[in-house]
Amino acid sequence: MEIAGIAPDMVARVERETSELLADLIRIDTSNPPGNETAVATYLDRYFRRLGLHGEIVGEPAGRRSFVVTLPGTRPGPRLALMAHEDVVPADGEQWRQPPFAGVVQDGYVWGRGAVDVKNLLAAFCVAVRRLAEEGRDFAGEVVFVAEADEEDGAIGGARWLVTQRPDLVRCDYLLNEGGGEFTVLPGGERLYELHVGEKGTAQFRVVVRGDSGHASVPLRHGNAVVGAADVVRALHDYRPKVSLDTVPPEYVELLVADPALRARLLDGGEAADALAERDRHAHDLLAPLYGLTFSPTILASSGEAVNVFPESAVVTVDCRMPVGWDQDRVEAEIETALAGVEARWSIEWIGTIEGNASPADTPLRSAIAAVATRLVPSARVVALHSAGFTDANWFRAAFPEMAAYNFAPYLVDDIQATSPRFHNVDERIAVRDLAFQSVFAYELVRELLH
Known about the structure:
By secondary structure, this protein is of the alpha+beta class. The chain contains 15 helices and 19 strands. Helix content is 35%, strand content 25%.
């Protein structure tokens, strides 16, 4: 598919540059843990120094540093940050068609860990900033390129360190970050693009079930911690908390759901999500995470090691996503309601809670994103919503509440059903044309927003 209004020779040039750069970045193994992001920061520093731009390698500890460089325009104006993270999740190459850290470019794709999460944006933003620099910086304000460490784990430094220790480097009026930008082709041919203007919070916890220990040769009809843990899993799985429509754009529901009666039910409380799953699993998977609190049991373990002994305890680990505005106390009340019918003795241990946040949906940044998207893809329709995932935009919104931070990394070739399974999975890859499109989009966004 062509990028409307962009000369084919320019697209070919951007494809070549971004794919070569992404391949190099993939070859720098920044699996987190342990991270080793400073190696990417050093590479990017050299890249920009060749353009005459001098950034800073910052952060702690020494091997886990970020990179920031600022490109000033020719006249005063706002500050736009383009941000992507340097680290990736680990990869076991045994099941991959291409080695995960070889940076292979083949069959129109760049293959490797980080190809879509999210070294692709590092490459795309680098090339966009290079073009802006070489063409005379004819824009107002400043463009700040931020390559942050430790996004995947978030325990060492990265974005949290930057906004607290070096706000002078990263404070901005607008932030464009990873996430969003996936599209669904609607029956009429329109492309529905997701613009993430906010993110749910995370509330991760363990439910510890206590039981009676003893020899397993004597059946334990009551007090078996493993059975109690199974009851906890089932109760959390089956629980349907009261839904929230605050972060579900009616436009999104209307565009995704064809059946008028089902659409009306989804707009009147959302209780029809299970019915939607039976008719349209794809639409369900897009809508259901937006409707409110979610409980996802992910790990089940016990204190026992011997197969013939009832363990004293079993533990259910749960990933919970909570809407913007919720806190740990409100989630705990929902847990207690969900487990009210479980007879086992249980207690909650909190792993960690990060409250969600959002930027206003009606800003010059949103208008610019929509304008550029429809110019480059005439069939595009951009809808603002909240993400069920977590990104480092959360730290920026919390530190600089006056700014607008959005997640939007648009695709052109592969739709959301093709791209979503590649995140944190084997055979991670991105189409060369999609990679170029993300770079062209960032370049055009600067020209649109900072005119």
